[in-house]
Amino acid sequence: MSPPRRMHLNAVIFGLGSHEAGWRMPESDPLASTSLAYWVDIARRAEAADFDALFLGDVLALQSGADRHLSDAMDPLMILSALAAVTSRIGLIGTASTSFDHPFHLARRFASLDHISKGRAGWNIVTSSNVLEARNFGLDAMPEHDERYARATDVVDAAIALWESWASDARAPDKAAGRYFDPDKVRSVHHAGPFVRTAGPLNVPRSPQGRPLLAQAGSSEAGRAFAARYADIVFTVQATLTEAQDFYRDIKSRAAAVGRDPDTILVFPGIVPIVAHTRQAAEERLAALNGFTVTDHVLAKLGEFLGEDLADAELDAPLPPLSSARPN
After folding, report:
1. Measured between alpha carbons, how far is 227 from 268 in angstroms, rounded to an integer?
2. Cβ count near 41 (within 10 Å)
3. Closest of 5, 2, 8 to residue 232, by C-alpha
4. CB burial class (10 A; 0-12, 13-18, 19+) of residue 328?
5. How does DSSP classify residue 166?
6. Average pLDDT, the chain
7. Mapping DSSP to helix (H, G, I), strand (E, B) and coil, where does residue 172 land?
8. Phi and psi of 267, rounded to 5°?
9. Among 19, 162, 211, 245, which residue carries the largest CB count within 10 Å?
10. Residue 136 contacts residue 84 (beta carbons within 8 Å)
11. Whole-number pLDDT of residue 326
12. Contact status, residue 94 vs residue 114, Cβ threshold 8 Å
């Protein structure tokens, strides 16, 4: 008999929630996202409800139209480090971009979080795609999609090598002999890839998990290949059950093709739940949320995502033919 299957739950939090107008609800505090108490409350609630992990998204820019919606975002690892002290079981997954950070910094920060959380750290690997982010790091534009994934591969390979630069039993402090660790069990990595180089070793000992859990989301060919090679959990949003099932099978088959056990990869479909005591109450709450939406802003945001000008689009008509699409 096969072992019973378990549903895994992951709470994804960015700002005051996934709905564009959540900050405008009467009960919302628009300034809560910069309050540690807000994040502590969420983490404790999620842990008490037996969620597996708390996942913090991130964007490295003040987004366009930021005056019309909540766009500011604090560093996820700063928040998660604080939450490690007030939780004991829930996973702590933070977003960090391979396009704008060096693998030594990434490996060191997530290893540190894994230590202070006693093995609960996770890295949501993103390549970033927003030109506003690029400009904040001295670039005029983002590199092409496939180049960003090529860099991500190089950065993650380097980070993994740094995490593995310490053996799990390297630290064996001998006060009498005056030796902190066994030098034969800490090694340089000398990673020299097409995008990044690092000598190593990491200056943080091997963490409780060995390395943090790796998460990734992306539906493009490059994104799926990357997820199958590296990810422990894969986030996805599909429009239909059939598409979701196809995505699941595709990720599992790709993982097997690169020599991984498909059962070690969890696929998380994304949903935005509207919670109330009855369906009618939930529908009314959703209608209230939608009623606070600034239409011209969300049209501009959708148009930016699709690469189209939707300013004059008829709201009750189907989308006009799209000239381009943005892969993830």
Report:
1. 12
2. 13
3. 8
4. middle
5. B
6. 92
7. strand
8. -105, 120
9. 162
10. no
11. 52
12. no
Classify the phi-psi angles of 179: left when phi > 0, otherwise alpha if psi is within -120 to 50, otherwise beta.
beta
The span from the CA of 63 to the CA of 72, in Å, is: 8
32 burial type by CB count under 10 A (0-12 exposed, 13-18 middle, 19+ buried): middle
* Beta-bridge partner residues of 59: none
Q: How far apart are CA 79 and CA 34, in angstroms?
A: 10
Superfamily of domain 10-277: Luciferase-like domain (3.20.20.30)
Q: How many alpha carbons fall within 13 Å on the CB side of residue 168?
A: 4
- Which residues, listed in sequence order, are joined to residue 233 by a DSSP beta bridge? 215, 266
* pLDDT for position 39: 97
The answer to whether 11 and 268 are in contact (CB under 8 A) is no
Spatial distance between the Cα atoms of 103 and 164, rounded to a whole number of angstroms: 13
Is the model's pLDDT at 266 over the cut of 60?
A: yes
First to last CA, the chain: 39
Q: Where are the domains of the chain?
A: 10-277
| In the chain, alpha helices (H) | 36-48, 76-84, 103-116, 131-136, 145-163, 221-230, 241-257, 279-291, 295-306
Task: Tell me which of 214 and 1 has the higher pLDDT.
Answer: 214
> Is 117 in contact with 84 (CB distance < 8 Å)?
yes
Q: Residue length, the chain?
A: 328
Token pair for residue 222?
A: 């490059």
One DSSP character per residue, 208-264 reads: TTSS-EEEEE--SHHHHHHHHHH-SEEEE--SSHHHHHHHHHHHHHHHHHTT--GGG
